Every structure is written in C-alpha cells, then in structure tokens.
Amino acid sequence: MKIDVIGDIHGCIEELHDLFHALGYQWEDNIPFHPDGRIPAFVGDLTDRGPNSIAVINLVYEMVVEHKRAIYVPGNHCNKLYRYFLGNNVKQQHGLETTVAEWKALDAKQQKVIQHHFMTLYEQADLYVVLPEVNAVVAHAGISADLIGKTNKKVKTFVLYGDITGETHPDGRPVRRDWAQSYQGEQWIVYGHTPVKKPRILNKTINIDTGCVFGNALTAFRLPEEETVSVPSKQQLVEEKFQTFD
Hints:
The chain is of the alpha/beta class. The protein is 28% helix and 22% strand.
C-alpha cells in the first residue's frame, strides 16, 4: 500500500487539482487515479473559507464513497457543516458562512444532492484511520498514543480539535497543548488542523496543514516514502493565521 495524505483543503479546488498533478495522478471519469495504485487520504476540513467548497465535496464524495479510491477522516469544519445539515443551530462563522452561501446559491435539487453527498461521506467516515501497511495513523488534529484504538468522546474531541485545555486565547481560539512534543509512539501520526508555514515534523508526527486557504501551500505526505509534496496557494496570504513554535 502506498498513501498520499492530503492536508486541509478548505475549498481550494484548484490547488487540489494542482497537487494531484504534482503527485503524478491522472484523470479518469472526472476523478484522479494514480498509475501505481497510490491511495489519497484526506485529513479533513474539506470546506469553509475557500472559493469552492461544493466542488471539493463532490470530488471527495466521488473518490471515497462512489469509487472507493480514497480515504477520508473528518475535521472540525466537517463536523460543523454536518451539524448544520442536520438542522442544528450552528453559528455561521469561522468559514462556515462561505460554504452555506455557496450551497444556498444552488437550486433546491442540487442542494439536496450536496447535502446527501456530504452527510453520507461524514457518516461513513471513521474518526481516525490506522494504516498498519504504512505504519501510520491519520487524524485531523492528531491523536495521542494512548488513545489509538479507542473511539470515546475524549478521542472525538482530540481528533477534531486537538489536545484542548478548555481555556481560550483572547481572540477566541482554544488553548491547545503541544501533544506532539511528548509523542513517543512508533507509528507516524499524520495530521493538520493548525496552519504552519512548512510541514512540522516532531518525533514521529507531521502536521501537513500548510495553510492553503491562507495563501501558503497545499501539502501531501507520501508513505512509505516519508516525503512531502507541496503546491503553492492561489489565495491571498494572511500571515497572522500561521502558528509558530519555539
């Protein structure tokens, strides 16, 4: 098995196409496939903030659900959109408003199709995926070694939001512990969620959310090669969105 784990897309469909091209994928029946049988794995946060979340939903649904040529784990933005589609009273902010606006611009029939596609994709997804063939775990915001194999509420919170303390920064962002600092596991943990300027490798963890929607890059981590491939973003750079570490 050969895997290409793809970082947070956030509606950046053009960059996703560019990344598939850079990774050597070809197109057949309007979906990408790799001549060497490589499998893409999406690390969540498909939608929100970017220019074309609906196109990303359609493509990932086709690849994962219809053709079973890809793997997907949900991110916190995916969870929020799912709760919106359930009819929950979700605040349309932090990017959800862009996806909802796109969706509402469709006719009623298309709206039903997109809602069904996304909810099916989300409901069929595991919280995180263990890939023993490449000695890796894919989880949106990461996962600590002691939680691998579990699926309780604590696990769900960790993989969607990171190792949050319950406190918030002045700008409203949750305070998160740097769990990767103390990770001592043997498996790669491949994650995103927190935008960084370049892939952050620490112990055997790698953050591949290189902030495409904030103007930096879209990144994939290839296994078993342990290589990263990035393509530049077409969005405007928003410098303050990137996390720096000591």
